[in-house]
Amino acid sequence: MADLLQFVVAGLAQGGAYALIAIGFVSIFAVSGVINLAQGEFAALAGLCAISAAGAGLPLLPALLVAVAVVAAVAIAIERLAIRPVRRMTTLTSIILTLGVSTALKAVMLLIWGPQGHTLRAFPGSDLTVAGVSIRAQELWILAACALVGGAVWWFYERTLHGKALRACSEQPVAARLIGISLTKASLVSFGIAGVTGAVAGVVTSPIYSSSWEIGLTLGLKGFVAATLGGLLSVRGAILGGILLGVLENLVAGYVATGLRDAVAFVVLIAILLARPGGLVKHTEARV
Amino acid sequence: MKRSDFVAIAALAAVFAVFPLVVPTALVNIGVYALIYALTAIGLTLLMGLAGQVSLGHAAFFAIGAYTQAILVTRYGVPLPAAAIAAVGLAMLAALLIGLPLLRLRGHFLALATLGLGIVLAVSVNEMEFTGATTGIFGIPKPEFGGRLYDSPEEYFWLMAPIVLVGLLLARGIVESRIGRALSAVNDSEVAAESLGVDTFRLRLQVFVLSAGYAGLGGVFYAHWLGVVSPSAAHFSMSVEFLLISVLGGLGTVWGALTGAFAVEFLDEAMREFIPVLVPGAAGEVQLVGFGIVLVLIVVLLPGGLHQATRRLFARRRPAAVPVSSGDGEPEPRRAARPERGSPLLEVRGLTKRFGGVVAVDDVSLDVRAGEIVALIGPNGAGKTTCFNMISGVLEPTSGEVTVNGVRTDGRKPHVFARAGATRTFQNLQVFRSSTVLGNVKVGRHLRSRAGLLRGALTLPARAEERMITAAAVRCLDAVGLAEHAGQMAVDLPFGLQRRMEIARALALEPDLLLLDEPMAGLSGAERRELAALLRRLREDGMAIVLVEHDVAAVLSLADRVAVLDDGKLIAFGPPDEVRQDPAVIAAYLGEDADVRD
Amino acid sequence: MFETRGLRSGYDNLEVLRGVDLSLAEGELVALLGANGAGKTTLLRTVSGLLRPFGGTVRLDGRDIGGLPAEKVAAAGLAHVPENRLVFPSLTVTDNLALGAWTRPRTRAEDIERMLDLFPRLRQRLGQPAGTLSGGEQQMLAIARGLMARPKVLVLDEPSLGLAPKVVGDIFAALARLRHELTILLVEQNARAAFKVADRVLVMDRGKIVMSGTPEELADDAQIKQAYLGGGF
User: Fold this and answer.
1) With an 8 Å Cβ cutoff, are A221 and B115 in contact?
2) Measured between CB atoms, which of B107, B116, B289 is closest to A266?
3) What domain count does chain B have?
4) Which domains does chain C have, with CATH numbers?
5) Which neighbouring-strand residues pair with B123?
């Protein structure tokens, strides 16, 4: 029983990170139909930036803010330089294109930070043990960040007019343009959001999972699976999908074999797509 | 396959024959890699260009081929060719298992699943003792055939060149074949291609499996050339490289795989030389920067790849209006006799469609018999097109049954409807944009011809059939008076002629039942009369025709029976004279008038 | 006030509009008729910037708006209420209306009130997601959303499409009320309804305006009668 709880706790934390990345996928895909394979790189880059900023003597919080700001700027630059110039964007094109972006980003990170992994120093707070289950302070930070950022994104889409304008672009792009909402601006904002959520995932996980140039790929794939679990169009679904995937992975790693951890996402992806191509979360907004 | 292809292959063969003789060994070595990767990229090009799908983990199939070959040859002493067959087969099997569930879904899922497969495979070969873990499998011998040992770059290049050429030739054959034509149609308009009987899923799966086969074969040659297979064969950067080759060469063309491979390999080599000079101490993998940036630049600036660039250099050439002979006495393909006049062809029972809370079509039942024209009329938004979409399999009904020629087709794909002997046209035209008028109509012959992937690849066996397809397509164009436009690009035709072309395309299927969605729309008076005459002739031949039409005058003079839909319900169904007098019909049409009279 | 000169447009290689000249006076309500495929929707999509014209000009209040992207055209004062309504289904009626005022947020609250007076049926639906409205209510919402920007010109594509006669009556009554407040270009299959409210009627055929006149003049035209007013039934 303690084992089970232990796995679930670890899974929740990991799932929180997946959820944040999944939100980024949803944010971009909903507005422009682009699958952004560089999503995981946002997290890797943010972790590495934060490590460098902290290494340069900045206190933790400013270091984190710098990292998030840098990645958001990178995300926006990507939208401007790589996404917008393409005249006929299909999902297929977007995959190839963002794969190129992701590859270039990876290599830049490799150039700057080298091949080895780095770890950001842990956030303040002490680890605790509840009912025989040890919980690391960092895991709580991850969950808090997921709740905070996820909640903020949700609030933005549900409660603000600008968020609703983005939803309008996603549901009826033609009608949105006809009332004066610019799809190009919407796309830019969606990349900004994806940059921020990805970056937050990267900095909060760095102290326990470490950051390196190559973590983005698997992280991105997991985030995509999580987003797909949630139907690819729903923030709520993305969060639930992320948590679910994290827990499932840790249960399999704990009870079956550690090596199989990465296979779980893949198997889950196929199983879910077969059973419910629309995702696990039922959402009323039909995007045709 | 065109004559120019054979010329190109012959020219390439000559170049390949002398290449190792005239360039330094170091460059021949790069050439060998280029050939290995070209072989892999040919499959990827087919997958992306024809099936409109992308694999982000093609290195997985490559690695499956390489590892299988290595293990079979070094551990079990299996002869090379037999091992190669097993290696390629295993790669194809893996693709089948992944494609079977995922290719039914749209777009990006295959891409992500292959990416996942790549990661899983890379992790597994790294972990498993069976695959030699991190060190991999070594000691793979250089191939030896007929006492000749292929161990130098020159020899290996000569060994591979013919295989790559054959691979290209087969791929070209497929692109030009019935299958290639059907898949290209799917990329232009999936719903139209399906309605002509193209089983999109099946064809895509075949192409995906084939592309994995090419990758597997690439892996086999890779294993023998390196003598060792390590986890790096499955590494993600390999997948990126394959993708880059295909995209750089040009997605629409298999030749691009070859040019792309040579370009990327030389680029790779150059970057290996230059980047350490530019950035001291940079690791070898930094060439990924270059790959990434080149990939982005190509998609943004040169979506057609090198192939497009070279084409742009030369004058832009549209296929000229090729004179097409109408068949030179080819035997007319005969099909089973039409159903007997008056026998029931289409039965619709309780057809209902709800969108959210709105009932678009409400419990519609009707039947259509061979040799009659049934018109479906009603105010805009009454549910006519929704009805058509459900009958033809484009839309799944909420409830109700559709039976065509005794086959239940409701809720199944449009190609099932087509196979049952029925097809349709579209209100908003669904033209296959990338082909000629003749090419469009040839897709209509899909179900009346049989050459599959294999026969298409081999070209020659499919020749006679291709001639028959062309002849039949020309006859259909003749029937609608479009024969002189056969060689024009379909999108260049004016609206009215595109509409007629769609009808010719549907006729090419020789359907028992033809559904026409507003065939008269956008046609001039004379064109309408011609079309009406054509429809009467088809009825004489025993075809059943259902049409949605706004031109009420045309409908009443043409149709044997008229079905009237209002607000999703069938309010009348009978001979025109009867329907004209029906109080419910009068109310439905005139009611609008009564209400706005203020 | 609003005019096009020699407007040509279409899709890729396919030219649908082959030189459209039309001109609307301030406050005029003009109905545009034509068979399916005549190019009516293409015309609306071109003037509102969803399609780039191949050639010709579009002028609104003397300003050339031809070739501007749709969001700029909207800000310039032309509201296009598209075919099939296209309301934002997951957003509430209030949100749909509020977004309608995207280009002029200042008058938002006041204009929502104005719209609810014009279409009282929307008042009971304010908090409901637009996707759950009936077809008629969605059409009203789409028109109201377009009006929220206080456009100078309103172009409407088939507002009666698929609606019950009673609802069509309500919508046309609202249009009659808007008449003379702003300039309206109305594409309509329901010719009888259109004839009742229009100041002038244009007929389009294969990419050109082929006839123009007052409803009274055109109603007597034998061709029009046969094609649009349904002699058969």
Assistant:
1) yes
2) B116
3) 3
4) 1-77+151-233 (3.40.50.300), 83-150 (no CATH)
5) none
- Tell me whether B434 touches chain C (CB under 8 Å): no
Under the banding of pLDDT at 50, 70 and 90, the label for residue B320 is very low
Instruction: Tell me: do B24 and B73 sit in the same domain.
Output: yes
Domain boundary among B235, B259, B276: B235
B568 and B446 in a common domain: no
Of A161, A174, A181, the CB nearest to C86: A174
Q: Are residues B504 and B523 in the same domain?
A: no
Q: For residue C70, list chain A residues with Cβ-Cβ distance below 8 A.
A: 174, 177-178
- Regarding predicted confidence, which is higher, A47 or B99? A47
CATH code assigned at B574: 3.40.50.300
Residue to test with chain A: of C12, C99, C108, most A Cβ within 10 A: C99
Enumerate chain A positions whose Cβ falls within 8 A of a Cβ in B: 35, 37, 82, 85-88, 91-93, 95-97, 99-108, 110-111, 114-115, 217-218, 221, 224-225, 228, 259, 262-263, 265-266, 269-270, 273-274, 277, 286
Query: Within 13 Å of residue A170, how many CA atoms lie on the same side as its CB?
Result: 27
Q: What are the structure tokens assigned to B77, written together?
A: 């002493």
Residues B525 and B465 occupy one common structural domain = no
* Higher per-residue confidence, A186 vs B459: A186
Range of the structural domain that residue A34 is part of: 2-275
Same domain, B54 and B120: yes
CA distance A153 to C162: 38
A252 Cβ contact partners less than 8 Å away, ≥ 6 residues apart: A260, A261, A264
Residues B462 and B572 reside in one and the same domain: no
Domain co-membership, B25 together with B171: yes
Are B182 and B443 in contact, with CB atoms under 8 Å apart? Answer: yes
Q: Indicate the number of domains in chain A.
A: 1
Size of chain B, expressed as the number of residues it contains: 598
Closest in C82, C90, C98 to A167, CB measured: C90
CA distance A252 to B490: 55
Evaluate whether residue A216 is within a structural domain: yes
Among candidates B379, B522, B524 on the partner chain, residue whose Cβ is nearest the Cβ of C36: B522
Q: Which residue of A has its CA nearest to B281?
A: A111
Half-sphere exposure of B106 (CA within 13 A, CB side): 8
Per-residue pLDDT tens over the stretch B513-542? 999 988 887 676 777 788 888 889 888 888
Are the C-beta atoms of residues C31 and C50 closer than 8 Å to each other?
A: no
Q: Are residues B404 and B529 in the same domain?
A: yes
Domain boundary among B207, B235, B263: B235
**What is the pLDDT at residue B591?**
46
Selected residue with higher pLDDT from A72 and B491: A72
Shortest Cα–Cα distance, C69 to chain B (Å): 21
Q: Which chains touch C (3 or more CB pairs under 8 A)?
A: A, B
**pTM for the full predicted model:** 0.80
Question: A280 lies in a domain?
Answer: no
Q: Name every chain C residue with its beta carbon within 8 A of the beta carbon of B382.
A: 162
Nearest-CA distance C232 → chain A (Å):
37
Q: Give the separation between CA B255 and CA B277, rounded to whole angstroms.
A: 34
Question: Domain residues for B455?
Answer: 435-508
Distance from CA of B379 to the nearest CA of C (A): 7
Residues 6 or more apart whose Cβ sits within 8 Å of residue C57: C4, C5, C6, C7, C64, C66
Cβ-defined contact of A175 to C86 (cutoff 8 Å): yes
Per-residue 3-state assignment (H helix, E strand, C coil) for C117-139:
HHCHHHHHHCCCEHHHCCHHHHH
Which residue in B has a C-alpha nearest to residue A97's C-alpha?
A: B296
- This complex has an ipTM of 0.91
Per-residue pLDDT of B398-417, as tens digits, reads 888 999 888 888 888 888 88
CATH code: domain of residue A68: 1.10.3470
B291/A96 CB distance under 8 A: no
Q: What is the pLDDT of residue B331?
A: 41
3-state SS of B52-71 is CCCCCCHHHHHHHHHHHHHH
pLDDT tens track for B326-379: 444 444 444 456 777 778 889 999 989 887 667 888 899 999 998 899 998 887
